[in-house]
Design brief:
The chain starts with a strand and ends in a 5-residue tail after the last helix. The protein is globular and about 45 Å long. The protein has 202 residues and is α+β, with helices and mostly antiparallel strands. The chain has two domains: 86 residues, Glutaredoxin (3-Layer(aba) Sandwich); 100 residues, Glutathione S-transferase Yfyf (Class Pi), Chain A, domain 2 (Up-down Bundle). Strands 4-3-2-1-5-6 form a six-stranded mixed β-sheet, with helices on one face. It has seven helices and six strands, in the order βαβββββαααααα. A hairpin with a 3-residue loop joins β3 and β4.
Length: 202
C-alpha cells in the first residue's frame, strides 16, 4: 500500500492507524500547494480531488476520504481493536464519532486556514468550534479515549484535527479534559512514530 499524505494534515489520522495496526505502507509526501508528489509526479493523477489522504491499494486502486480509509485499514487488522466488529453497536458508535469529527470539528477548522476568508466568517466559525469543543470536553471528561478504554480510529482522527489548534491560535486552556486527552494520545508510542515520520516532533 501507499499512503499519500501532507505533514500535519488530516492524513496524519490514517498514518497513525497504520502505525497502531502494525501495517506496512509506503509514505508518499504531497505538496498541496503544487499538487506534486515528492519525486513522483502529479498528485491529481492519483486523486483528482486534490487533497489528502489517498490510499493506493496493492491492486493499484485508490481509496480516498480519511474516515473511509481508517476503517479500511483497521479492518485489515481486526485484532488491533482499532475498529469494532461489523454489526456491533460499538462499530456504529465509532462511525458516529467519525461523522461528528468530520462534519463538526474538521470542517470548522477549514476556514481558519483560508487566507481569503473574511474576518467575520472566521469569527463565526471560531464561535461554533468553541461550542463544539466545550461539548466534547464535557463528553470525554473521565474517559481515557472516545470509546472509553479502547483506542480507536476515531481517536486518531480527532487527534490529527485537534493538533491544528496551535496553528490557528486556538487556546485549549478552557477545556482541561480535552487538553489532557490530546496529550494522552500524543504520548502513545505509535502516535509518536507517525509524528516523527512526518517531521512533527520537537
Amino acid at each position: 500500500m501507499k499512503l499519500y499524505y501532507a505533514p500535519g494534515a488530516c492524513s496524519l489520522s490514517p498514518h497513525i492507524v497504520i502505525e497502531e495496526a502494525g501495517l506496512s505502507a509506503q509514505l508518499k509526501k504531497v505538496d498541496l500547494g503544487t499538487s506534486q508528489i515528492e519525486g513522483d509526479g502529479d498528485y491529481l493523477l492519483i486523486n483528482s480531488k486534490g487533497y489528502v489522504p489517498a490510499l493506493e491499494l496493492d491492486d493499484g486502486s485508490i481509496l480516498t476520504e480519511g474516515p473511509a480509509i481508517v476503517q479500511y485499514l483497521a479492518d485489515r487488522k481486526p485484532d488491533s481493536g482499532l475498529m469494532p466488529a461489523a454489526g456491533t453497536i460499538e462499530r456504529y458508535r465509532v462511525q458516529e464519532w467519525l461523522n461528528f469529527i468530520s462534519s463538526e470539528i474538521h470542517k470548522s477548522f477549514s476556514p481558519l486556514f483560508n487566507p481569503h476568508a473574511a474576518a467575520e466568517w472566521k469569527a463565526g466559525t471560531l464561535d461554533n468550534l468553541r461550542n463544539r469543543l466545550a461539548w466534547l470536553d464535557r463528553t470525554i471528561a473521565g474517559k481515557t479515549y472516545l470509546m472509553g478504554e479502547p483506542f480507536t480510529v476515531a481517536d486518531a482522527y480527532l487527534f490529527a484535527v485537534l493538533n491544528w489548534s496551535g496553528l490557528v491560535g486556538l487556546d485549549l486552556t478552557p477545556w482541561p479534559a480535552l487538553r489532557t486527552y490530546l496529550e494522552r494520545v500524543r504520548s502513545r508510542p505509535k502516535v509518536q512514530a507517525a509524528l516523527r515520520a512526518e517531521g512533527l516532533t520537537g
